[in-house]
Amino acid sequence: MTISRRTTALAVLAVTSVLSVAACGGGGGTTGGSGNGSTGSAAAGSKGGTVFWLTKRPAEHLDPQRTYIGRDLSIENRLFYRDLVSFPVGKQGEEATKPVADLATDTGQSSEGGKVWKFTLRDGVKWQDGKDITCEDLKYGFSRGFATDVITGGPNYQLGYLDVPNKDGLPTYNGPYKKAAQADFDKAVTCEGKTITYHFNKPWADFPLAIASLRSFSPYRADQDKGDKSNYAVFSSGPYMLQGTWQKGKGGTFVRNTNYDPKTDQTGRKALPDKVVITEGLTNEIINQRLIADSGEDKFAVTDRAIPGSMYSQVDSNPTVKDRSTLVNSPFTDYLLPNFNSDVMKNPKVRQALAMATDKTAYITALGGDKAATPSKSIVNPELPGYQPNPAFTAPDSGDTAAAKKLLEEAGVPLPVKIKYTYSGGTPTSDNSAAALKQGWDKAGFSTTLDPLTDTYYDVIQNPNTKSDVYWGGWGADWPSAATVTAPLFDSVLNGVGTNPKSNGQDYGNYASDTVNKLFNQARNAATTDEANSLYQQADVQLGKDTAYIPLSVTKFYYLHGSGVTGYAQSAASNGYPDLGSIGAKQ
Amino acid sequence: MSEIKRDVEFGAGTAQETLAPEPGATQEKAITGRTPWQLARARLRRDKITMVVLAVVALAIVLAILAPILSIIGVLDPETFHPELIDGNTGGLPLDGGGGLSLQHPLGVEPGTGRDVLSRIALGMTFSMTVALSATLITVVLGTVMGLVAGLLGGKTDFFISRIIDMVLSFPVTLMLLALSGMFIDIITKAGVPAGNPSNGAYIVLVLGLFGWPTIARIIRGQVLSLREREFIEAARSLGASNRRIYFKELLPNLWAPLLVYGTLVMPAYISAEAALSFLGVGIKPPTPTLGNLLTYSVNYAAADVTFFLFPAIAIAILVLSFNLMGDGLRDALDPKADR
Predict the structure, then answer these.
(1) What's the pLDDT band for B181 if we cut at 50, 70, 90?
(2) For residue A366, which residues of chain B lie inside 8 Å, CB to CB?
(3) Domains of chain B by range and CATH?
(4) Residues 6+ apart with CB under 8 A from A296
(5) ipTM score
(6) Interface test with B, best of A432, A450, A556 (most B CBs within 10 A)
(7) Domains observed in chain A
(8) What is the pTM of this model?
């Protein structure tokens, strides 16, 4: 989800062709650090030691089929959930987002123009209890994604592509718990020995990219499945396994999985440290202060929390700290979502006024300025193929108070318009960025209440009954294609808006438009990428007209890591986050 | 008429006393009856530091009252971001050296946002002092009532209230305040206080007030214990005065002095408590400015932007110091025999 997802933007290009790589800078040009691309402490890593991952936001799910946060997707793939194919470790540029065989013997064979995909499992791949990973485990894992009443939060591509009968645009198959139309599913996904075959209702050329990017297609052992109770259970197929239990909001410790055989793994996972400790609930300020100090265990720490603006001068003025910093273009963009279930936001003029009054310059300033983000004109990252600025957003970057006031007057609502803005908060940076938006809106005639969520975030806004008027969102393409931005976010049918009382999927604003849904469907069935891109662009134009979202900024990752970290890398393969596949602790 | 006359006499007397410390003749002239209040005021005027401090406190109160009004009419602007005044390359440090001090922004601009520091400190004082004052009122009222009742009724009531006091005093207040904030803020919200900062503020006020009263209650109880044996109370009793009369007409007027003194000493303690709690993440949340919020944020810039770091700290220091000195001064004036 959000800030979740990935894109590999850069690499992206590569894969899909087109854009020149120079623009994107590969995994991101580093400024401070050792050099280019993804950077790292050069020393060759050796086995042993402990690596620490310090962060703030709690993981909302460790269930592979429910994970959709870019950071967690990457950590899971590198540590404990292997997939048929994965992105390679230690590659840069376009190579980084070219899937390589992982659990499978190759990267898949497609037939019927991409409608049928076949993968064969490798010999010797095992679960943490020593049992073999089977084709049935893969099939069971995939089937869980259809139980949208239990397995909430995850991606929804499976709903649109699998060749099973549909009703009202959704498959009649509803997952392994209720098992309605199980026979249809069994026909669409078949096992012959170690070979699994997926049948889709339309060509899906990007299928291996989807497997490598998401954890939707990860195997899952049926005897380990307790439905919603398995949300934080980790049953490992990778080099590490969870020690004890995961404590939400605190984190967990991962130790070596003795049943993992590195000989079966050709993705380049180095599995250097003996332990990986993930600590949640620290603020950006504390994390980065500790990384600047670089003492004790913090020498072996990495983070996914950007350096706050208040510490830039400390980093810049100290060469030994600056050497440990990296500045990378991330796949993510920030945006706002009017909640279409809120009475006041149902008025299109109010939404337009909100967009008009939004002060992106102040927002970015509060995030930390040029090293934190740049203003955006669309929800799509400019580095993605098929990007175009959304023509609906005509306001200058710092907003247009007068025009917004006028729109509000035309809206015919009593002033000031009371709105509640819900965002992932609790740090000075996030609270200031919310205050930046508030002051712009309040000047134009809104009266904004700020609602910072300090614990899990997407969980809350995925509930269609949450009472708020505007949400913050951050999104990166799942893989380098416009198909993975607006469609997963605004397709109301696949997201179950109006049909699923518990979750709006990724359509957090509860936006529903037949026009847009139809364009998405046409785009999925389009014969060429160009045609698909142009249909996605049309959909984006319509989204702009409806003010389904308000673009804010394109995110950069300005990170620090400890001096004892080896093999440090941030690349498109790890969604721009530190890549645990190569990171080790200096011995 | 008599009012005016009294004032004139009083004024003259004070002036004399102030100007001419005790040559015998003068004293004899001034010896005409003065109430304890008059004596206290006279003592106060002689105390230069307290007079200065009183002026500072008065100024702070006026500023705190005016700040919201000035913000509405636009003289102060604590909300507007000024990206043009700060440098995006350095994480938002003010472009002009020295924290962005200028005519428009006499105390500079806030790094990272460009908001006017003076406006934020002024409005921050409003919120901080509102919280501190409300908590002080609860403390004083509750402490007075409990102290009066315990002291006057004695016996089992006294025993009972004294044990409550012991119990409350032994609570680990700060710890509870942090640990229970989520739960109690929910309760406050459900009780009808608007969610968000009104509830957060109410929580701080309630906790400070509800855990702060025992000290005052003990002092009042001690005072009452000695007062109730005095002749005027006995006289009132023997004349058949009701309890109510004894509470309100006989005892309370004699307790004003300690109440005023301890009230003014509790207030600065609560101002610093609010700041400390903001730092620990409880209380009114940004972007609403309180002195605590400003200080908490400014600590991030201790190295990068010293002026910004200093101003909120100085504001709190001046405010707390003034209230403390004022309390001390009042004690010296109202209750000269009290131990320091």
Answers:
(1) confident
(2) 81, 92, 112-113
(3) 42-78+106-333 (1.10.3720.10)
(4) none
(5) 0.71
(6) A432
(7) 11-278+561-585 (3.40.190.10), 329-556 (3.10.105.10)
(8) 0.81
